[in-house]
Design brief:
The complex is a heterotrimer.
Chain A: H1 4-44, H2 47-50, E1 60-61, E2 66-67, E3 80-81, E4 84-85, H3 86-89, H4 123-131, H5 141-149, H6 152-155, H7 171-183
Antiparallel strand pairs in A: 1-2, 3-4
Chain B: E1 2-6, E2 9-13, H1 21-28, E3 47-50, E4 53-56, E5 69-71, H2 73-76, H3 83-91, H4 100-113, H5 119-126, H6 136-151
Parallel strand pairs in B: 1-5
Antiparallel strand pairs in B: 1-2, 3-4, 3-5
Helix pairs in contact in B: 3-6, 4-5
Chain C: H1 2-8, H2 10-13, H3 18-24, E1 49-52, E2 55-57, E3 63-67, H4 76-88, E4 95-99, H5 121-124, H6 126-148, E5 155-158, E6 161-164, E7 169-172, H7 173-180, E8 229-234, E9 242-247, H8 249-252, E10 257-263, E11 266-271, H9 274-282, E12 285-289, H10 298-309, E13 314-319, H11 322-328, E14 331-339, E15 351-356, E16 361-365, H12 370-381, E17 388-392, H13 408-420, E18 424-427, H14 430-435, E19 443-451, E20 457-466, H15 485-488, E21 500-507, H16 522-539, H17 544-551, H18 556-569, E22 579-588, E23 591-601, E24 607-617, H19 624-643, E25 649-650, E26 653-654, E27 672-677, H20 695-707, H21 718-722
Parallel strand pairs in C: 3-4, 8-18, 16-17, 20-21, 24-27
Antiparallel strand pairs in C: 1-2, 2-3, 5-6, 6-7, 8-11, 9-12, 10-11, 13-21, 14-19, 15-16, 15-18, 19-20, 22-23, 23-24, 25-26
The chains are: A mainly alpha, B alpha+beta, C alpha+beta.
The structure holds FE2/S2 (inorganic) cluster (2 copies).
One FE2/S2 (inorganic) cluster sits at the interface of chains B and C.
Amino acid sequence: MIRYRDVLRSIFSILLCVVSCLVSANGQRNAASAAAFEAMLPVLHHPRCMNCHSAGDFPRQGDDSHPHAMNVRRGPEGRGVTSQKCSTCHQDHNLAGLHMPPGAPDWQMPPRNTPMIWAGLTDNQLCELLKEPKQNGHRNIDQIVEHMTTPKLVLWGWNPGEGRTPVPMSQADFAAKVKEWAVGGAVCPAASSSASHAATQ
Amino acid sequence: MISFSVNKRPVKVDVDPSTPLLWVLRENLELTGTKYGCGMAQCGACTVHINGQAVRSCVAPVSRAAGKEITTIEGLSPDLSHPLQRAWLEIDVPQCGYCQSGQIMSAAVLLNEIPNPTDDDIDQALTGNICRCGTYPRIRRAVHRAAEMMAKGGAR
Amino acid sequence: MIAERQAHDRSVVGALPRRDFLKLSVAASGGLLIGLYLPASKAAAAATFAPNAFVRIGTDDSVTVIVNHSEMGQGVFTALLMILAEELDADWTKVRFEPAPVDPVYNHPVFHMQITGGSTSTWSSFDQFRNAGAAARAMLVTAAAQRWNVDAASCRTEKSIVIHSASNRRLSYGQLAESATKITPPQQVALKDPKDFKLIGTPLKRLDTPEKTNGKGIFGIDVKLPGMLTAVVARPPVFGGKLKSFNADKTKAMPGVRKVVEVPSGVAVIADGFWTAKRGRDALQIEWDEGPMADFDSKAQREQYAAMAKQPGLVARKEGDAGSAISSAAKKIEAVYAVPYLSHAMMEPLNCAVDLRADHCEIWTGTQLQTIDRMNAAAIAGLKPEQVQIHTTLLGGGFGRRANPVSDFVSEAVHVAKAAGAPVRVIWTREDDMHGGYYRPMFYHSLVGGVDADGNPLFWSHHLVGQSIVAGTPFEMIIKDGIDPTSVEGADDVPYAIPNLSVEYHPAKIGVPVLWWRSVGHSHNAFVKESFIDELAALGGKDPFELRRKLLTKSPRNLGVLELAAEKAGWGKPLPARRARGIAVHASFESYTAQVAEVSVDSDGKVRVHRVVCAVDCGRYVNPGIIEAQMQGGVIFGLTAAFYNELTFEKGRIQQSNFHDYPMLRINETPEIEVHIVKNNEKSGGIGEPGVPCAAPAVTNAIFAATGKRIHRLPIRMNEAVGGSKEDLK
Ligand code: FES
Ligand code: FES
């Protein structure tokens, strides 16, 4: 005699199997997207990116991310203030020579009301912040991909000028990871992960 | 040939477009009020305005000036009548004087955008301008004084 | 041999240590008017009245004062005019300045050559300019009296007008200019009673402000001559290096490059303009013989100095017996202080324009040392000194760098001019300037001191090691018994009443060119002396102000400024946590200064100087507005060095190059600086340099008061002191 309870258990386990199989298909997709995001992190956490996505109302500079010399400020638009705008010193291209101001078209940092501060965030928080339309300049995922792969200012990270370390991954690999992340649903790593990048104060 | 205007006067120069604007102003256009101090955007002695914005001309290739309006210290006013110049005279700011064109040109952009600046605004605007003689205390006083003059309807 | 020629020039042989110079200075009074007149051939044309070498009065009432000191920010183009205008009774609004040409009549009255330095310009020329003004006035009065046929004594003068009150007749100086040329210059004139001074002692506005506010002022770098070329020079990367070979193919292919030539200092690229010359210079491929300094290294140098400091040195001061007092001290303390090489970093980098012709040479540059520059230029050009004229432009800062006994930047430019075949100027980039040598020398100081059972200082023993700035130069004769007075100034004259005191100097011979740097020996000795007295105060459990006060009873002017600064700063009044005051007092250049710095140090070690109260006693003074500016500038100069500046060598090469790694204090870091001037009738002292020495020790003593950590090395390294990082200071 098959006991009612066993039947239930079998049905339950079948169901469980079905559910878990479904979940794992989806889970693979999620995991791949989140993993792609994690693969992007060495770039996002690199001083070439972090120095403008840094804590405080000012940019930073150098591989040690020290506060930008000369008391430079973000300004309302992320383009500096009064007589110390970014364009006061930065051109649309790098200048030859060590310690010369680097440059790229539209040199700026995030504007004051959406400062996109990445310093001190966990991987999950960073990922969620990127996707948050109110913070990311109302970009959808495609536009985020666009922002991370095409503007000359972002691409500058791969060609930062004499004496500066470029971001640690080829631009093609990074672009591939960004797309992989987006195609996989722009999934964020689990919230439990601890801050992998603390602000350099 | 690169064409632009300097102190409201149209000019054309035949130079390598990568030449810093500073040297074109100083040598080709004989406007030596704009100074060389570091050549790397560290000191502000070379500050001029391009379309009203402060630019360090030692790092700006002359090509950036094409079609734009450049203002140098010589063009700030014809007769020392700009409120900053009047305040500079009243407070007796300069010592050696070498940095002062840059200081004034930076301060002019500050006052255009913030007519009544706080000390913090002054710090944010003028920290890029080095004065080796140490005229900073008087610069601060003079910027406040110029703001007062402007508020009282001083000529602009 | 240039050096030999200089050594035999009478004017240079006359050079003596500063304190001896002072003894030679003639006491103030009317006196005979010697040394005021140019040879007749050089006097200005008759259209203007040129009663002597220092003043010209035009028929348009203009009063032109010819100034024999270089204007480098210190205000001589105003202060010296005030002195002359005072005795001339000139209308101040008509007074103009003009830099003097090179001529013995313009020699420094004490140094006997044309030089601007040692914070001496105003006081050394005080009598000279008074006499010049008074003599001119007397001649104008005589001219008016003759015209009116009245007794000169019945005329008075006011604002450039001679007035005969009895007949109510007036003639302006301009109206009298022509007839005054016919008056015989007086042999003797009466000077005003200082209580009648109208200009001297007042804060008149500087006369050079307009041209420094509209971009019209001409600095050396602004000089433009017809057909002038510009040169940038490649110099050896290591001091003492020599050119082996070079390849200029790339450079010569650049449009606008005219010539590439070897000069004694390296390889000069001569081009149409600066940018081309610089790019051409940077494109040279050069092989250098790096010479004996190829491995020179700052760390090794420091170790060498430390070893030297342990040996007996040359005795610069000895009172009592510091050696045997060691054993009777209740407590004692040892300390080592070190300061680095420093660049003057004038805002205007070095430059010099030269127009060299077969029979004469004209030079335009901002120099502090015309007489010697002219001699050196003449020797190189193969001309007589009289065939060389130097046009002194405005100086974009000097701080001593433009008074170089070997005239490095002038000599090189003359060499380049010989090769250029056209008027040429040499411009140094900021990097060239910073790598060009003639630094404030590095110094190493080791001290031992002790207090008695009551906590009163009992002995003080100080060894200092460093290069002499005059050894091997024409100024070498100031070295006495091996001791360069400029190395020990401020250390051998410790004013504190300490019974046993010894100061020993160890001259180091190192191939790094060194020179006077604003406040010279005081720039480091004041830091050491004022830090160590603070250490002794702490050792004896005394308040640093009270201890100084007690030990300065026999030094009233030191005491005066000390008490004034303390009072104005509110010494002893409570401050918020982690905030404290430090005090320092120091005499230099015949003036006395004290500073109280109010400093906070946050938990990361970030130091902020909030306020500096400065008291200064420079005796009788001319323009308090200029004094305030000089003291503020001096404090900022001192703070810049204290917080930021250091030149270090690795493999013979200077590691720093521009303001990104040799930073300057900026406006956002500048404290409030209050200046209080003591009013008295003491002999005038200097004002350009005395603001510098106290700035560092006032701040480091305040850091000690705030944190208990003593700063022994400049620049201040808070990571060593309070566990912060160097970045915290930025
Ligand atoms: S010369 Fe341009 S910033 Fe210094
Ligand atoms: S006035 Fe001399 S550098 Fe500013």
